[in-house]
Design brief:
Helices cover about 30% and strands about 15% of the residues. With about 280 residues, it is of the alpha+beta class. A hairpin with a 2-residue loop joins strand 4 and strand 5. Helix 1 packs parallel to helix 3.
Length: about 280
């Protein structure tokens, strides 16, 4: 008798769960139709649509042994409903903003567009950090607006530095071109595969400029010339394997807000104590 009652209760909960999912889907479809219908009478009059009325009733949870999995399903549905609610709010707000812009004068719209901030181009920061790692050499200061090579910087005088370990001519390092006159530097196979040194000097960022036999950093000025701790002139490729897994507990995969938690392997570098993805130069 008791098992029959438990089975009946379980079936009712499953049916209720399915009804709630269907109800959320129907409501989302209706809101999408309302928001995307640009031919409605309200659109022609510039009147905003009414905020949809939705309500979520949290499920009653019975954390009994055979009901735990169902409770987790109910929790996931609650999270999905909240996501749908957020989407509906965003769509509704967008509809209201679009209606107000359509009803505005063209000159006002132009002014709004003119006031929008322009996203600044990406510039490197760590490549200008001073002093240079594992030494006391300070870079020449480069302001953000002087990083691109296209911007004139007459006072630019980069520090010349190559680490002693690189100057010892290990097999993974190029000849010291900085100690040679520009006319006597051997031409390296820049922007392509170098068969002589068995290294790929092509950059994933595209072709880079070469001046007086030396490559220019495609990201702009760094306040330093020379190789520093790097062995090659041009790109110094590295392989960084990314190892991930879903965080798990004794009960299975861990959920945070209805979503899985991703973990990855990282190492703490000894030279600067920063966390990084483990990798090796190629």
């Amino acid at each position: 008798m008791k098992r029959a009652e438990e089975k009946d209760t379980l079936e009712r909960r499953v049916c209720t769960l399915g009804d709630r999912v269907n109800d959320a889907t129907v409501k989302l479809d209706r809101i999408m139709e309302c928001v995307l219908d640009t031919t409605s009478a309200e659109d022609s009059e510039g009147a905003p649509t009414a905020q949809p009325n939705y309500e979520w009733r949290p499920p009653t949870r019975d954390m009994g042994g055979m009901d735990r999995r169902l409770a987790r399903m109910e929790e996931n549905v609650a999270s999905i409903f909240e996501t749908v609610k957020t989407m509906v709010d965003l769509l509704h707000n967008q509809k209201v903003e679009s209606s107000s812009m359509v009803s505005s004068e063209p000159t006002q719209v132009t002014n709004i567009l003119d006031l929008r901030p322009v996203a600044p181009a990406f510039i490197h920061h760590k490549a200008r950090a001073t002093p240079y790692p594992q030494c006391a050499e300070k870079r020449f200061g480069v302001p953000d607006d002087k990083v691109p090579w296209e911007v004139e910087f007459p006072d630019y005088s980069p520090v010349d530095y190559t680490a002693p370990v690189v100057l010892k001519k290990p097999p993974w390092a190029d000849p010291d071109l900085m100690s040679m006159h520009s006319s006597g530097r051997p031409p390296l196979a820049y922007n392509r595969l170098d068969d002589e040194y068995h290294v790929n000097r092509a950059s994933h960022m595209g072709p880079y400029r070469v001046v007086n036999g030396l490559p220019l950093n495609p990201m702009g000025r760094t306040g330093m010339q020379g190789r520093g701790l790097l062995g090659r002139f041009g790109p110094n490729h590295a392989a960084d394997p990314i190892v991930t897994r879903w965080k798990r507990t004794s009960a299975g995969v861990m959920l945070d807000g209805g979503k899985k938690v991703l973990e990855f392997v990282a190492i703490q570098r000894k030279d600067n104590s920063q966390w990084a993805i483990p990798g090796v130069s190629t």
